[in-house]
Amino acid sequence: MSSVSVPANRWLVLVAVMLAFLPVVLDMTILHVAVPTLTQSLSASGTEVLWIIDIYPLLMAGLLVPMGTLADRVGNRKILLIGLVIFGLASAWAAFAQSAAMLIAARVLLALGGSMIMPCVLGLIRKTFEDEGERAMALGLWGMVGAAGAAVGPLVGGALLQHFWWGSVFLINVPVMLMVVPACYILLPRREQTTPGRWAIGQALLLIVGMISVVYGIKAGFGGKQSLPVIALVVLIGVTSLTLFVRKQLRSPEPMLDLSLLSHPAIVAGLIMAIVASGALAGVELTLAQELQYVLGKTPLQAGVFMIPIMAASAVGGPVAGYLSNRFGLRRVATLSLAGAAVMLAFLARSDFHDPGVLVPLALALLGLTLSIGLTASSIAIMGSVDASKGGAAGSLEATGYELGTGLGITLFGVFMSSVFSRAIDLPSGLPQASAEQASRTIGDAYIVANELPFDQGASLIEASKAAFTQTHSVLLTTAAVVIAVLAVVVFLALARYRSLPPAHH
Prior knowledge:
Layout: H1 10-41, H2 46-74, H3 76-95, H4 100-128, H5 132-163, H6 168-171, H7 173-187, H8 201-223, H9 228-251, H10 265-295, H11 300-306, H12 308-328, H13 330-350, H14 359-383, H15 391-424, H16 433-439, H17 443-452, H18 455-494
Helix pairs in contact: 1-2, 1-4, 1-5, 1-7, 1-10, 2-3, 2-4, 2-8, 2-15, 3-4, 3-7, 5-11, 5-12, 8-9, 8-15, 10-11, 10-14, 10-15, 10-18, 12-13, 12-14, 13-14, 13-18, 14-15, 15-18, 16-17, 17-18
C-alpha cells in the first residue's frame, strides 16, 4: 500500500464514529432494567419479553458478517450513514409501540441499523489510523466507549424510567442520531478503498436463517411452548442452512466468512471465550436487574445504581487486560481471569442481597473486571493470530461471537430461569388453573396475575414468587460459575502453544 496521507481530522473522525457506536451498545443493555416496567405496561408474556430483549442481539449476530462484507464492497461511509438513519427511525417507532409484537418488529429494524453501524465503525478506525501505536490507542478508546456504553445502559434506562414512560429508553436515541448523522456526513472521507467483487446475498440469507432458526429452536424447546415436531423442523432448517453456508464458504474463492481462520486453536479458544463470557455477563445482569426490582422492590434507577460496580469495573477491564497480557502472557491472564470470575459467581450465589454490605458490591466489581479481562483476552487471541489483511474477517467473526453470546446468554438464562422458577414456586391454594399456569412461568407473570387477584391472595402470590426467584437466582449463578470454571480449563489447554504473529512490517 502506498503511504496514505494521514487524515488531519482523524481524531475528529474517531469522535464521530464513537458517537455513532454509542447508541448501538446502549441498546443492548438499556432494556435490562426496563423489563419489569415494560412487562407490566404491555402486559407481555415471558416469551414475548425474551423476544423483545433477544431479537436484537440475535439478528445482529446473523447480520454482522454480511454487513461487514457489504461495507467492504460499497464503502464504510455509505453503509454507516444508511445504518444511522434506519437506527434513528426504528428508535422512534419502538418508543411509541402499542403492543409487544409492534415493539419486537421495531427491534428487528434496530438490529438491521445496528448491524450496519458496528462493522463500519471498526473498518473506519482501521482505515483512518495507519500508525500502529495510534491505532492501538484508537481501538482502546473505542473499546472503552463500548464497555462504558453497555455499562451506563441500565443506569440511563433507570433514570429515564424514574421520570418518563418506558418508550423514553428508545426515544433518547433520536436526538443523538440527529447530531451524529450530519457529523459523520461532514467528517468521514468521501473517497475510500473498496474491495471489488459482488456481494453474495444468498450466503447472507443462509447465515441469518440458520442462526435464527437454531436459536429459536433452543428457545422454544426449553420454553415448552411449541410441539416437538415444530421444534425439530425449525432446528433442522437452521442446521441445514448453516451447513450449506459452511460448504459455500469453503468452496467460494471470495468467502463471506473466512473459515480457514478456525484452524488456529487460539482463534477457536478466543471465540468460545467471547461467546461464554459475554453470555454470562448479559445473563447475570438481566437476572440481577429482576432480582433487585421484583424481589428487593428497588426502583429501576436504584437497580441501575446497585449495578454500577459491575459496569464500572468492566469498563476498566480492556486496558488492564492489554497491560497484563504483555507482562505475563495471554494464557495466564485469560485462564486466571476466568477462574476469578467463576469464584465471584459462586460467592454471589451464596450472598444475601437484602443486606449487601461491602462484600456484594466488591464481588460485583471483581466479576465485571474479570469477565471483561476475559473478553479482551479473547480479542487479543483472535487478532494476534491473523495478519493485518485478515483483520476485518477476524473482527467480524469476533463481533459475531459477542452478539451470539449475548443473545444465547439471555435466551439460556431466561429459559433456565423460567424452568427453575416454575419448579421452585409454592403457589397459594385456590388459584384458578389458568392463573396458576401463568404465575408459575416467570416472576413477571406472577406479578401480572397478582394484580388481577383479590388483595390477600395477590400478596401471598407475590411473596411466594419472591422466595422462588431468590432460589432461582442462586441456582443460576452457581451454574454459571461451574460453566466458567470449565471454560478456564479449556482455555488453559487451547492456548498452550499460543504465540501472537509478529507485526507485518518493522
